[in-house]
Design goal:
CATH topology of the largest domain: Rossmann fold
Number of helices: 10
Distance between the termini: 40 Å
Low-confidence stretches: none
Structural class: alpha/beta
Largest sheet: 6 strands, parallel
CATH architecture of the largest domain: 3-Layer(aba) Sandwich
Number of domains: 2
Number of strands: 11
Bound molecules: guanine
Helix content: 25-40%
Length: 298
């Protein structure tokens, strides 16, 4: 068996198309232009690439983008003051503070400052609480992207066995919650799970979000399972030349794609979906803040 490849790039393009139409409709019907503010602290190269892409795509779908770069010596109080200013700015519908933050800043304190209605990352305790108790809040972008791809592949997910490998607040925990809401039987595994291979082998759906290069092996995977690889790991690639590197996921892709029914590649799988879902969340937040039913945008 050779797995079908789930094309996250194409899927994300479709979402951005729908967001572009919604943004145009918000302007034409309601005279509203959604605005997304992105705050980055310091010069972490990976974060900078990520934020550049967010800013570029925000403009491409017709939203207002506000980009704030703060020096890594900024104090927690100064960052919190910036977030408070954005909370009070009516032109800003969504706020994202790029993580990780420098060690001297308490991430939770900053996230809890973001107004829950503008928390397009879905990281605020109000939003994670809503997700855990039946929904209605903002849903974290990466798990939302994974769920949309799974629903596209399977339709109804009811009764399927899912294993989420990884327990972060950003991916693992909200992903498990979304799968549970979709009526899957969910196991949350992690780097200390005993006999991880057996947990993975029992699953119809594998979500790999553990942050360890190619940790999940092909012979762990149940024949025909759907594999969603959230990992983005840069590893040395001496075969490409001295000092060269390449990106791999948390799944040993070549092996897994011979067993799985469907699989996301790295890059080009989950990655592009995260920003597309961020833009989608910004439209959702804008609609909620203005009491507009998104279904009426069309
Ligand atoms: N850093 C890595 N992923 C994310 C994300 O989804 N949101 C934010 N704010 N920071 C991140």
């Amino acid at each position: 068996m050779t797995a079908s490849i789930i094309d996250g790039k194409a899927f994300a393009e479709n979402i951005r198309g729908a967001v572009t139409r919604d943004v145009a409709s918000l302007k034409n019907k309601h005279d509203i232009q959604p605005g997304l503010a992105v705050v980055i602290v310091g010069d972490d190269p990976a974060s900078q690439v990520y934020v550049r892409n967010k800013v570029k795509q925000t403009a491409e779908v017709g939203m207002n983008g506000f980009h704030f770069h703060m020096d890594d010596t900024v104090s927690e109080a100064e960052l919190i003051a910036k977030v408070t200013e954005l909370n009070n700015d009516p032109a800003v519908n969504g706020i994202l503070v790029q993580l990780p933050l420098p060690d001297h800043i308490n991430e939770a304190a900053v996230i809890e400052t973001i107004a829950p209605a503008k928390d397009v990352d879905g990281f605020h305790v109000v939003n994670s609480g809503l997700l855990a108790t039946g929904g209605g809040g903002m849903v974290p972008c990466t798990p939302l992207g994974c769920l949309l791809m799974l629903q596209d592949k399977h339709g109804d997910l009811s009764g399927l066995k899912a294993v989420v490998v990884g327990r972060s607040n950003i991916v693992g925990k909200p992903m498990a919650q979304l799968l549970l809401d979709a009526n899957c039987t969910v196991t949350i595994a992690h780097s200390r799970t005993k006999d991880l291979a057996n947990e993975v082998a029992a699953a119809d759906i594998v979500i790999a979000a553990v942050g360890r290069p190619e940790m999940i092996k092909g012979d762990w995977i149940k024949k025909g399972a759907t594999v969603i690889d959230v990992g983005i790991n840069r590893i040395p690639a001496p075969e490409k030349g001295e000092g060269k590197t390449r990106l791999v996921g948390d799944v040993a892709y070549a092996e897994a794609s011979r067993v799985a029914g469907a699989i996301t590649p790295v890059p080009g799988g989950v990655g592009p979906m995260t920003i597309a879902c961020l833009l989608k969340n910004t439209v959702t937040a804008t609609c909620k803040q203005n009491q507009i039913d998104p279904e009426t945008l069309g």
